[in-house]
Each structure stands twice: as structure tokens, then as C-alpha cells.
Amino acid sequence: MDFLQILNNTAAQILSPVTLGFVLAAIGLSVHFGFAGLLNMGVAGFMAIGAYGFAISTLTFGLPWPVAALVGLVGAVLFSIVMGIPTLRLRGDYLAIVTIAAAEVVRLLFLTATFRETTGSADGLVGFQADFRASNLLPPGRYGFGPWTYQSDQWWVIIIGIITIAIVVTLVWLLMRSPWGRVIRGIREDEDAVRSLGKNVFAFKMQALIVGGVIIAAGGIVTALGTNVNPNVYVTSQTFYVWTALLLGGAATIFGPVLGAVLFWVVRAFLSNLLPALSKIGVLPFLTSEQSQMLVFVLVGVALMVLVIFRPQGILGSKKELTFVR
User: Fold this and answer.
1) Highest mean pLDDT: which of 256-260, 288-292, 314-318?
2) What is the DSSP string of 211-259?
3) What pLDDT is stored for residue 1 in this prediction?
4) Rounded CA gap, 213 and 29, in Å?
5) Is this model's pTM higher than 0.85 or not?
6) Which of 42, 62, 270, 306 is positioned for an S-S bond with 10, CB 3.0–4.6 A?
7) Strand partners, 4
């Protein structure tokens, strides 16, 4: 077993587009659940809309990649409005039901053969990063150090992803320090009290849903820049991954989602490399290589249960911010 190679593969995940995309998705979910108390169980749907909006805009309509990214973000705004209008006046659990159903509807629309020429159906979409890669300002070649050695195109995705995360973190920090942020925190705690002060609770909830949804869609776009777009990726388990990352780092915090997403993918990558290696050398003789991969998900689920029981506020969270949506 090459333990050094396992560590290198694990460390490389810190800067992978998937990790950076999930950082953004976790930040958006923190705006929804952590700050506004909205139970969004359709994170995968927002990520799919961002990714497909970007990919379809470049492949079908030939739009420049910045405009295509804007299309994906606008799609998330429309998706938020469509879901929010019938549900945000109701209790939080209704929003959870609607969002998880809406995310599955979106996935099935991208999966259906009816729109194969546009969405690629089950095959997904490839080659939509051409314009993005053409804008690469870095010299061609492979460079870096240690496990963080990538091709020029990969570095370009990483740089854009990190810049996007920096902008989003700053934006959320400013919003949460503003009067708007104090209002949505108040709505999270007791929306009747906020309504009694003359605030339009529905409007603030809708704004929070849109802001968080746009950030999640940006995560979908960053993830898509480093890989292909396929409807089988945007399943319910992806939503649970983002929830795990958020709860690990701490909801209602600025940097908690960043830390949680990075730790989640690093630990998942470590276990995904370690367990099959242990199976091959006979340390885990009762598991095949495929079964050891499934064990990773079991361990992640157990870790999440332990986290919720013993430290529900997460690593960076505060018990003062901990709330359960009623």
C-alpha cells in the first residue's frame, strides 16, 4: 500500500473544482438555513440549473462564458421565485418538501430524451468549456508543487473558483452585518415578532432564497468547469453532501461552510483511497474493493449522526446561533 500516494491524492482534493463548487453550495445553503431558517432540500436542483444553464448557453447559443454564467445565475433566480411564491408563506417543512421534489423534477427534465439535442439526456453535455479555456491567461504546461500540480486549464478553473469564493464570502459577510441580515436572522428566530414590527416577512424570505440559490448555482457552474455535466450527478445524495459540509463547518457562520466543505471532501477522498487499499492487502478481507467504496458512505453517515448528536453547531458554529425551524 502506497500511503504517500494516498496522502497526495487526498491533498489534491483541497483545490479540486468539486471541492470549490461545494464550498459555494454550502455557503448558499448557509444563507438559506443558517441565517434565514429556510429548509432547502433541493440544493442539487440549484446546482443543476447553474451547470446546465452555463453549458447549454455556450453549446447551443454560442454565448461567451461570462454571459453563459450569468444565464445560469438568472435561472437560479427564476427557480427560487417559482418555488418560493407558493411555499414561503407556509411552515418551513413545506419548503423542504417542495424543494426536494422540484430538484428531482429538474433532474428528470434534463434526463428525458425529449430534449436530448439540448440537454444530452442521460449522456449529459461535454465540450462546453472551450470558450472558458480559450480565455485562460496562464501559460500552457503543467506546474505547481507537491500534490497541487495541475495543467494550465485546471489552474484556470481553480483560480476562477477561488476568486468566486472570495467574492461570495465577502458579500455574505457584508449582508449579515447589514440591517437586511439582522432582519433575516430575526425571521429565523421568530417571524411573527418580525412581522409585528412591520417587516414584510415573505419578501425577506424570498430575497434570502434568491441570494442563497444564486450562490449555490455558482457552485454548480464552478463544478461543471472542471468536469462534464450529467443529470445522474444531481441526485438527492448530492444535496445531503452539501448539508453534511454545512453542518460540519457550522451553519450561520461565514467561514464554517468553507471549512466544512473542504474537510468533507478531504476525508471522503482519504477514505475512498485508503479503504480499497486496505482491502487489497488483506487488512479488510471481508470487503471487496467495490464494497469498501460503499463503506465510505456508511462512515460519512455515521460521522454526520455523531456530529449532530455531540456538536450540532458544527466546528465553527455557536450554540447561540443554533436554531431548529419550527
Assistant:
1) 256-260
2) HHHHHHHHHHHHHHHTS-B-GGGSSHHHHHHHHHHHHHH-TT-SSHHHH
3) 57
4) 8
5) yes
6) 270
7) none
Residue 322 reports pLDDT greater than 70:
no
| Spatial contact of 50 and 218, defined as CB atoms under 8 Å apart | yes
List the grid coordinates of 285.
478481507
CA 218, chain centre distance (Å): 9
The overall average pLDDT reported for the chain is: 91
Cα distance between residue 291 and residue 77, in whole Å: 40
Domain ranges within the chain, ordered by starting residue: 17-235
Beta bridge partners of 229: 125
**Cα 181 to Cα 108: distance, rounded to the nearest angstrom:** 35
Which long-range contacts link 116-123 to residues 24+ away (Cβ below 8 Å)? 118/56, 118/60, 119/52, 119/56, 119/231, 120/229, 120/230, 121/231, 122/230, 122/231, 122/232, 123/230
Digit-coded pLDDT (tens) for 106-141: 999 999 999 999 999 999 999 999 999 999 999 999
